Automatic annotation (TrEMBL):
It catalyses: N-(5-phospho-beta-D-ribosyl)anthranilate = 1-(2-carboxyphenylamino)-1-deoxy-D-ribulose 5-phosphate. Belongs to the TrpF family. The keyword Isomerase applies. One of its GO terms (molecular function) is phosphoribosylanthranilate isomerase activity. Pathway: Amino-acid biosynthesis; L-tryptophan biosynthesis; L-tryptophan from chorismate: step 3/5. Residues 5-208 form the N-(5'phosphoribosyl) anthranilate isomerase (PRAI) domain. GO terms for biological process: L-tryptophan biosynthetic process. Keywords: Amino-acid biosynthesis, Aromatic amino acid biosynthesis, Isomerase, Tryptophan biosynthesis. It is an enzyme of class 5 (isomerase). The lineage of its organism: Bacteria, Pseudomonadati, Pseudomonadota, Alphaproteobacteria, Hyphomicrobiales. PANTHER family: N-(5'-PHOSPHORIBOSYL)ANTHRANILATE ISOMERASE. It comes from Microbaculum marinisediminis. Its EC number is 5.3.1.24. This is N-(5'-phosphoribosyl)anthranilate isomerase. It comes from the Bacteria.
Length: 226
């Protein structure tokens, strides 16, 4: 079974070229001023141009207002929205009516009961993204390189695909896929040399590690008698 890869927080042309060369399926651009990966819509549009038609271009926002969304849609034109704040199901339904774009809603996870929040979003979100819950004093709700216990997702059966993020890197992503069995994985800090500075070789290694984990998963499925 294929596992899609999203590389998030691209800030320069070198990182964009690495994503294109590695064949990642999703490329994320951050629109959240406190983040070291924040970009203007115009800069993000210019950076994303070589990825159009090859990767799904995602706009990551955190409780953004209507004016911010209008700017992102008018100038950047995302293929998908990643909502990484406390957006309500009603807010998501309104955004989907206004922009007719698929939405991925982030659910913050620290313990099993956090998964209960998913239910309310299943009718409106096209994808669920599970990320580690940020500490209360964090300056942003993600992109911190923090992970959670992937065993919490083992055996999860949702009616929509789910993506796993939080503290992934080329060395641990295979184990994360083996345990959580996500449809897709998302990484930012784990392929950087410093916050906001992507490492092209780490991006290539991350995608390679995901492909190897996929192959291992397929081999293990073949061994299960029907
Ligand atoms: O990347 C950011 O700066 C960011 C800012 C605000 C919300 C989310 C952000 N990134 C997302 O966080 C997760 C985990 O990232 P990491 O790999 O642990 O650094 C991922 O989904 C990013 O898209």
């Amino acid at each position: 079974m294929h596992v899609d890869v999203k590389i998030c927080g691209l800030t320069d042309e070198t990182a964009v070229a690495a994503v294109r060369d590695a064949g990642a399926e999703y490329a994320g651009f951050v629109f959240f001023p406190p983040s070291p990966r924040h970009l203007s819509a115009a800069r993000a549009a210019a950076l994303a141009a070589p990825l159009r038609g090859q990767a799904t271009v995602v706009a990551l926002t955190v409780d953004a207002d209507d004016q911010a969304f209008d700017d992102i849609f008018d100038t950047f034109g995302p293929d998908m929205l990643q909502l990484h704040g406390q957006e309500s199901p009603e807010r998501i339904a309104a955004l989907k009516r206004r922009y007719t774009v698929p939405v991925m809603k982030m659910i913050p996870v620290r313990e099993a009961r956090d998964l209960g929040a998913v239910e309310a979003y299943l009718a409106v979100a096209d994808r669920i993204l599970f990320d580690a819950k940020a500490p209360a004093d964090a300056t942003r709700p993600g992109g911190l390189g923090l992970s959670f216990d992937w065993r919490l997702l083992a055996g999860l059966d949702l009616p929509v695909p789910f993506m796993l993020s939080g503290g992934l890197d080329p060395d641990v992503v295979g184990e994360a896929i083996r345990i959580a069995r996500p449809n897709a994985v998302d990484v930012s800090s784990g392929v950087e040399t410093a916050p906001g500075v992507k490492d092209p070789s780490a991006i290539a290694r991350f995608v390679k590690a995901v492909r190897a984990a996929e192959a291992a998963r397929d081999r293990s499925m073949e061994r299960i008698p029907s």
